[in-house]
Design goal:
Blueprint (H helix, E strand, L loop, with lengths): L3 H9 L9 E3 L2 H10 L3 E4 L15 E3 L5 H7 L3
Parallel strand pairs: 1-2, 2-3
Length: 76
């Protein structure tokens, strides 16, 4: 997947790519993070309905209250 929309979203939000990650719920989100060169945090309760753990994302969460620790895990 093309990482340009991710780069644009980070820039428009006032962020920096080197201190960003992609949080998503699909294989496409995982692949976009890889293409962008940023960590991926996947949620297993979203759209995909797939075994996202098999992708070995940088972090996998089962509820949004786990997000702060997942961000720490990926160094953010």
């Amino acid at each position: 997947p093309d990482p340009r929309p991710f780069f644009t979203a980070v820039r428009l939000a006032g962020g920096h790519i080197d201190s960003s990650c992609l949080i998503g719920d699909s294989v496409t989100d995982y692949n976009t993070a890889k293409a962008a060169g940023v960590p991926s945090i996947l949620v297993d309760f979203g759209f995909a309905g797939q075994d996202l753990a098999a992708l070995k994302p940088d972090a996998l969460i089962t509820a949004f209250d786990q997000l702060p620790s997942a961000l720490e895990k990926v160094g953010l």
